[in-house]
Amino acid sequence: MASGRASICASSCPFLQATAEDEHEFARSRVPLVAAVSCDPASFAHDAAILPARGYRLDWLRPVDQFRWSGHVELTARFSR
User: Fold this and answer.
1) Tell me: the pLDDT tens digits for 22-61?
2) CATH (residue range 8-80)
3) Would 35 disulfide with which of 10, 17, 50, 59, CB 3.0-4.6 Å?
4) Strands of 57-64's sheet, edge to edge?
């Protein structure tokens, strides 16, 4: 971080169940990498739809089944630009 700017931003569930203004402020940032972790696939879908419109691309998305005896699934993803 020699330039004084962040090179990655990590967000976790629910990143964006914030206001639309908060969502767009994040998406306008100059951060080149976003690591997203979500405990809810529906909120992830909502949040992930904002980033491509701001120049990010989804590099990968992986489900994490850490609660073996439940239907709960975490999602992890990387976005970059």
Assistant:
1) 666 666 777 888 888 888 888 888 878 888 888 889 999 9
2) 3.40.50.150
3) 10
4) 8-12, 33-38, 74-80, 57-64
